[in-house]
Design a protein that fits this description.
Elements: H1 8-14, E1 25-26, H2 27-35, H3 47-56, H4 62-73, H5 86-96, E2 101-102
């Protein structure tokens, strides 16, 4: 998995296998990476968990962006992003975080 602009330390702490730093990641790789920030292991991503993920890729304004990401992806309004809403979070990550996520 590769995430644009991710530091070597962040990669070591959030992945088990890496490719190039500026490459693409698949949808499955994105989901696996995101699961590492699901601290309470409830299968959902909260604003705080998303904020930690954004910080891990050295994203600026992580609090603001995490709030925007939850609002963009949380279709049912429960304050979390679940498996059914992950595609909306992928769209947000590509547009607002500069991640390159591909289907293969």
């Amino acid at each position: 998995m590769a995430i644009k602009n991710m530091s070597a330390v962040a990669i070591k702490n959030t992945t088990t296998a890496t490719r190039a730093l500026d490459g693409d990641m698949t949808v499955d790789e994105f989901k696996e990476w995101l699961k590492r920030f699901d601290v309470d292991k409830d299968g959902r991503i909260s604003r705080q968990e998303l904020q930690r993920a954004i910080k891990a890729i050295r994203g600026r304004f992580s609090s603001w962006k995490s709030s925007r990401g939850i609002r963009a992806a949380d279709i049912d309004g429960d304050g979390y992003v679940n498996e059914d809403e992950i595609d909306y979070l992928i769209d947000f990550a590509q547009k607002s975080l500069g991640l390159r996520i591909v289907a293969y």
